[in-house]
Amino acid sequence: MAEKPGYVNAHTVSLNIPFAAGAMRSTVVDLLIWSQALSHGQVLKDDSYRQMLTAARLNDGARASYTDENGDHPIDYALGIGVTETLAGPVVSHDGAIDGFTSSLTIFTGPDLAVAILVNTSPSAHLPFDDVMEAIRGDPAVSVR
């Protein structure tokens, strides 16, 4: 049977190999329930949650950064999650991918908004993640500094 142009079946991967890095299964609804529990104190104590949202620092106290053709950029990574400071408060995010699946969960803590995206394709520049996030960030309540 011929494949559709641009798509091929993902390689079969034993879920014993990726373990927790890709052997978790969820739904968009489950991810949104998780985001509400996490950001409303049902998972971590306030102190632990604040620590989780604090971006990592180098030994000298400076924020880690990387440089590309557009200049220097801070690395917004905390304890296992990405954290970006916005005018409305921290934006917490985590994404993942394994052969045939790509996911993203972003929590805008200020306006109490969460976006969960699950796509049944491998990572690709054609996925909607950036477009969706840019549309949301266009809202003055969540726009990035």
Automatic annotation (TrEMBL):
Lineage top rank: taxon: Bacteria
Domain Beta-lactamase-related: 12-126
One Pfam short name: Beta-lactamase
Coiled coil, from the record: none
Leader sequence segment: none
UniProt-listed SUPFAM superfamilies: beta-lactamase/transpeptidase-like (SSF56601)
InterPro entries: AmpC-like (IPR050491), Beta-lactam-related (IPR001466), Beta-lactam/transpept-like (IPR012338)
Record-given protein name: Beta-lactamase-related domain-containing protein
Organism phylogeny: Bacteria, Pseudomonadati, Pseudomonadota, Alphaproteobacteria, Caulobacterales
